[in-house]
């Protein structure tokens, strides 16, 4: 049952992202309303160019809307300065990319410690034990002292998920996290992300891969920058009305 006591972790209202192009203004995301609760595991799907990455960028503060509101974990991302956004992003959201984006000259454990080092979120002596615990959680603690190039793609993506968890964010946003993995490894990695949602993280995944459907509690379909379908919409609407 919806619990009106719990405010949505993610709340978009009329979120719009326009770009100036040679052919005139182009709307990558158009008047999107969306509420996502803690613990949801949401797939964002839609054809190429429908606005999925733009939505992921708005949720992580990589881009700001040109109009409308994006509130995540109580923070109005649409109204924050670039510095404030960068600081917030480093602490409160974990981002997972298609191509892992681990730093090649740092070991796996050092990569996972990096967000803690940047934001000084944990005392220095706690950072390596915390990184090792996260790698253990992702079942790759034995790879901690290797460089990323020595790991398989699936292992690198698990390390990237451990890095995303480093500062214990409420929200994990992943843009095609399995797009560079074989299908067995993709299922494994998606299973790990879904398990994080069951433990209370909010997980939002941009994906093309239909075979991952069973991992999600909700699917939001974009087309031409608009939400065309949302399997969680009735519940989200009831919650929003209860909160109004
Ligand atoms: N900086 C920009 N300037 C102009 N147009 C842009 C810009 N960024 C994105 N777009 C356009 O906005 C639309 C949505 O892009 P977006 O990357 O969000 O789509 P997507 O659904 O993630 O696509 P894909 O599945 O191919 O990655 C596309 O038509 C894209 O070309």
List the helices and strands and how they pair.
Layout: E1 10-21, E2 24-36, E3 41-45, H1 52-60, E4 67-72, E5 75-76, H2 82-92, E6 93-96, H3 108-119, H4 124-137, H5 153-164, E7 171-175, H6 183-198, E8 202-206, E9 218-223, E10 226-230, H7 233-243
Parallel strand pairs: 3-8, 3-9, 6-7, 7-8
Antiparallel strand pairs: 1-2, 1-4, 4-5, 9-10
Bound molecules: adenosine-5'-triphosphate.
Family: Belongs to the ABC transporter superfamily. Macrolide exporter (TC 3.A.1.122) family.
Keywords: Antibiotic resistance, ATP-binding, Cell membrane, Membrane, Nucleotide-binding, Transmembrane, Transmembrane helix, Transport
Organism: Scleromatobacter humisilvae
Describe the structure in your own words.
It is a single chain. The chain is an alpha/beta fold and 244 residues long. It has one domain: Rossmann fold (3-Layer(aba) Sandwich), CATH 3.40.50. Helices cover 35% and strands 26% of the residues. It has helices at residues 52-60, 82-92, 108-119, 124-137, 153-164, 183-198, 233-243; strands at 10-21, 24-36, 41-45, 67-72, 75-76, 93-96, 171-175, 202-206, 218-223, 226-230. The strands form 2 sheets. Strands 6-7-8-3-9-10 form a 6-stranded mixed sheet, with helices on both faces. Helix 3 (108-119) crosses helix 4 (124-137) and helix 3 packs parallel to helix 5. The longest helix has 16 residues, at 183-198. It is globular. 42% of the residues are buried. The model has no long low-confidence stretch (mean pLDDT 92). The site of adenosine-5'-triphosphate has 12 residues, from strand 1, strand 2 and helix 1. Adenosine-5'-triphosphate binds next to strand 1, strand 2 and helix 1. This is ABC transporter ATP-binding protein. InterPro entries: AAA+_ATPase (IPR003593), ABC_transporter-like_ATP-bd (IPR003439), ABC_transporter-like_CS (IPR017871), ABC_transpr_LolD-like (IPR015854), MacB-like_ATP-bd (IPR017911), P-loop_NTPase (IPR027417).
């Amino acid at each position: 049952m919806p619990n009106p006591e719990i405010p949505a972790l993610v709340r978009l209202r009329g979120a719009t992202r326009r770009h100036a192009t040679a052919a005139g203004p182009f709307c990558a995301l158009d008047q999107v309303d969306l509420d996502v609760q803690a613990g949801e595991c949401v797939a964002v799907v839609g054809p190429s160019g429908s606005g999925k990455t733009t939505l992921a960028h708005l949720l992580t503060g990589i881009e700001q809307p040109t109009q409308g509101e994006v509130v995540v974990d109580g923070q109005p991302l649409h109204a924050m300065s670039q510095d404030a956004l960068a600081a917030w992003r480093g602490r409160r959201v974990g981002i997972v990319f298609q191509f892992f984006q681990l730093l090649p000259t740092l070991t796996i454990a050092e990569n996972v410690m990096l967000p803690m080092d940047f934001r000084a979120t944990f005392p220095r002596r706690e950072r390596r034990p915390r990184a090792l615990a996260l790698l253990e959680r992702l079942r790759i603690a034995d790879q901690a002292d290797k460089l990323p190039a020595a790991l398989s793609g699936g292992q690198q993506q698990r390390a990237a998920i451990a890095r995303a968890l480093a500062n214990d964010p409420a929200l994990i946003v992943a843009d095609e996290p399995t797009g560079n993995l074989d299908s067995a490894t993709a299922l494994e990695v998606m299973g790990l992300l879904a398990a994080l949602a069951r433990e209370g993280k909010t997980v939002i995944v941009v994906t093309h891969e239909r075979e991952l459907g069973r991992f999600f509690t909700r699917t939001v379909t974009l087309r031409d920058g608009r939400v065309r379908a949302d399997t969680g919409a009735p519940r989200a609407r009831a919650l929003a009305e209860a909160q109004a």
